[in-house]
């Protein structure tokens, strides 16, 4: 562009022209106390709906918050693919199975808003990124972000992923113990900081500070509901806001630096966004760039943490699969990491099976704008409606022996038999994870780099204990013993 650079803010306004950029509607509130009042008012208006467990039961609500499968799967078995459950003050409707997933994410997508769903409290931290917006605004923003996740950009990031992984395992020793969940969290965040912001996490300035404050801000979202209601000085919420402000200062400083000295060849997402043009011809605003970056940081860090740690843990629990993958990685030899895509089918099958058992985004909370019918059940407008990849992935009619780790489910012949909507670890439809390909490659590169040097061994044969928020992941550390490959 030449001359004066205009800055376009795609954020919501009350009106728009037919061909203009849609504003993301503001949620009615992001304050949990006000959302509580809203939900109670909606509950008083509620009539009909899906059958289920509708009485108030504090113990059941606590179990749902800590171990959702143990509560939800019995309800599916009793009531079928659509049922309701009261979770504290809210009646939640769950729709389960491929047809339900496609209805919510594809065929009637416009009727189900994410922004007013139960995950709306992420908005104060994430802002208006791809996770928290709907409709035309979301779709236009996605178009702008797509080049950052093209094949060329992913290939350019692979070397950095491999180098970061090598650096992170340089201190591991034969026979040593490692908390693989803690290691995965650190490694995933370091990779995300480099790929998204171009920050060096070893730099004791911006890189280390941004890392520390992002981790601190996220802790609030993994706390219990009653803790998230607390406001005021000294509460987890006030600490989250403090860390958000500190993180924002770093992000805005980096945005200003890129605008003042744009690189000739943008190599990270920040550089790509500062150079990107909006659909109306102007540049993205600083606020928009900030929201997209923090959203991608959340998605790329928290989900990758659980995926990496659980992949390596399941390989350690299943020595035959682990050794098959180690042999495959060894046979690949010195193939550059950037060329590994498609060369490690056994590893990819293990990764896909890990994502079946433990999809990080295990539930898709929505609010329906209009009344709709599914399986003969009418659901009133404004209801809390959820689809669940985790529940669908545990249906025995789709995945026999669903609790077992069986990577052969993803052999081409077996996978071809799955109906659309049966396997959705990254969501589906226009909201499918924009970083899906990047995530699959990142996980394979990290795992292959680890397995070239080490053979993880499980100290415990039991399945991991999980926590469902903010994404599905290990509740506690997962310790593995290391031997040389």
Notable characteristics:
485 residues, alpha+beta, Cytochrome p450, 6-stranded mixed β-sheet, 3-stranded antiparallel β-sheet, 15 strands, 48% helix
Short description:
By secondary structure, this protein is an alpha+beta fold.
Please explain how this structure is put together.
The structure is a single chain. The chain has 485 residues and is an alpha+beta fold. The chain has one domain (7-151, 180-295, 360-442): Cytochrome p450, CATH 1.10.630.10. Helix content is 48%, strand content 11%. It has 18 helices and 15 strands. The strands form five sheets. The protein has a six-stranded mixed β-sheet. α2 (58-66) packs across α3, α11 (236-260) crosses α12 and α14 (319-332) runs antiparallel to α15 (345-357). The longest helix has 32 residues, at 286-317.
Distance between the termini: 53 Å
**Shape-level CATH architecture:** Orthogonal Bundle
User: What would you call the structural class?
Assistant: alpha+beta
Low-confidence stretches: 1-21
Give the helix level as a range of percent: 40-55%
> Under CATH, the topology is which?
Cytochrome p450
Order of strands across the biggest sheet? Answer: 2-3-4-11-8-5
Mean pLDDT: 87
Largest sheet: 6 strands, mixed
Number of domains: 1
CATH class: Mainly Alpha
Can you say what the CATH homologous superfamily is? Answer: Cytochrome P450
Query: What's the gyration radius in Å?
Result: 22 Å
Global morphology = globular
Number of strands: 15
Measured by DSSP, the beta-strand proportion falls in 5-15%
Number of helices: 18
């Amino acid at each position: 562009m030449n001359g004066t650079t205009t800055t376009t803010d795609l954020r919501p306004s009350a009106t728009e022209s037919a061909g203009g950029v849609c504003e993301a509607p503001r949620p009615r509130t992001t304050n949990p106390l006000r959302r509580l009042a809203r939900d109670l008012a909606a509950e008083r208006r509620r009539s009909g709906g899906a059958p289920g467990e509708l009485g108030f039961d504090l113990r059941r609500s606590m179990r749902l918050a800590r171990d959702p499968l143990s509560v939800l799967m019995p309800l599916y078995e009793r009531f079928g693919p659509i049922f309701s459950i009261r979770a504290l003050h809210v009646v939640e409707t769950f729709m389960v199975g491929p047809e339900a997933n496609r209805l919510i994410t594809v065929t009637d997508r416009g009727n189900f808003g994410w922004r007013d769903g139960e995950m709306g409290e992420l908005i104060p931290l994430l802002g208006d990124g791809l996770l928290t917006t709907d409709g035309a605004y979301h779709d236009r923003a996605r178009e702008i972000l797509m080049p950052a996740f093209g094949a060329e950009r992913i290939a350019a990031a692979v070397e950095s992923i491999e180098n970061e992984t090598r650096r992170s395992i340089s201190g591991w020793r034969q026979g040593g113990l490692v908390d693989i969940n803690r290691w995965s969290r650190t490694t995933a965040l370091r990779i995300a900081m480099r790929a998204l912001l171009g920050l060096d996490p070893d730099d004791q300035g911006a890189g280390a500070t941004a890392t520390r404050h992002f981790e601190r801000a996220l802790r609030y979202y993994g706390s219990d509901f009653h803790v998230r209601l607390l406001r005021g000085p000294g509460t987890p919420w006030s600490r989250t806001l403090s860390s958000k402000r500190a993180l924002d200062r770093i992000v805005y400083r980096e945005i200003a630096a890129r605008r003042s000295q744009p690189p000739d060849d943008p190599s990270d997402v920040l550089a790509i966004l500062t150079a990107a043009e909006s659909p109306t011809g102007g540049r993205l605003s600083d606020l928009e760039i900030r929201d997209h970056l923090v959203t991608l940081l959340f998605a790329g860090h928290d989900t990758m943490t659980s995926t990496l740690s659980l992949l390596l843990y399941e390989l350690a629990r299943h020595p035959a699969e682990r050794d098959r993958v180690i042999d495959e990685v060894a046979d690949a030899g010195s193939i550059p990491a950037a060329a590994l895509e498609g060369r490690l089918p056994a590893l990819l099958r293990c990764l896909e099976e890990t994502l079946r058992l433990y999809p990080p985004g295990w539930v898709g909370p929505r609010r329906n704008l209009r009344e709709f019918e599914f399986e003969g059940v009418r659901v009133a407008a404004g209801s809390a409606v959820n689809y669940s990849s985790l529940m669908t992935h545990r249906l025995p009619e789709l995945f026999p022996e669903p609790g077992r780790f069986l990577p052969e489910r993803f052999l081409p012949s077996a996978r071809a038999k799955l109906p659309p909507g049966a396997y959705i670890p990254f969501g589906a439809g226009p909201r499918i994870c924009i970083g899906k390909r990047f995530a699959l490659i990142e996980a394979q590169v990290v795992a292959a780099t680890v397995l070239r040097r080490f053979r993880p061994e499980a100290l415990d044969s039991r399945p991991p204990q999980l926590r469902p928020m903010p994404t599905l992941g290990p509740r506690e550390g997962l310790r593995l013993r290391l031997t040389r490959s």
